[in-house]
Amino acid sequence: MERVRVKSPAKLNLTLQITGSQGGYHMLDSVVVTIDLFDGITVARRTDGQVNIAMRGLGSENIPYESNNAVRAAKLFCEQFNAGGADIWVDKNIPLGAGLGGSSADAAGVLRALSQLYSVPQERAEDIADMVGSDTRYLMRGGWARLFGRGNVIRSINSALKPDFLIIAPQSGVSAAECYRRYDSLPDGARNNSQRAQAALENGDYNSLCKTFYNALYAPARTINADAERALYEALSFSPDGAAMTGSGSAAFAVFSSDMLCRWAKSRYRGSFNAFCAKAYIPKN
Questions:
Q1: Going from the N-terminus, what domains does the chain have, and what CATH number goes with each?
Q2: Which among 106, 135, 164, 227 is annotated as catalytic?
Q3: What's this model's pTM, rounded to 2 decimal places?
Q4: Residues of the chain under the 50 pLDDT cut
């Protein structure tokens, strides 16, 4: 095998609570799900130990090589497993800086593809994920989950629910680092939304799930980029069953009980942001 191609999904944070801080990082309690929006990742063998990358789409061509998480993941993999290097191609479909996990998805996809290419068990490669990004280990697995710590402690959730999401993604993003920094001056009260969301998922209770959507980072995100507030306002304008910002923004989602309702809302969207429909994506093991 000389080349491997995988699809790496985006994610949504249905709930996101801050539970404290440790070692300079904010600790999370977040219910997440992957969606059927994918970046395409292709990796090919090298024998000289070098890592090259070509990005295409959504302005990803401008991501500096030295700060590209896909490159970092590949280099760490090659060092850890004495691999011969890699050529990487990334076809971007996940918007940048939107809170949809695009950078982590690329790193996760690279680690999954390299694991296949070099016959390394994925479980071993997951240890590298935590060095690359908080969501990377989770995005190597996907599905419904509850994340703790920096997002690297994963509790999988079994649920038959597959809601439909209208996602509204501004072209401008939010700096996650700045968003977390500002959170400290705009803290929220203690909530148990993640626990209630997990219970609703396990019980297959769609209506109860929709009542739990919450993001503690929304208050600081809207002070950094007004588009984050506008995106959520536009998502709510369709009277969905629930809505929230995802990650540290700037994208927001509205949830509907059927694909038909979701596409109806998209057909009537008249805003200036990127809007698309997506469904919860549960990978087959």
A1: 3-155 (3.30.230.10), 159-279 (3.30.70.890)
A2: 135
A3: 0.95
A4: none
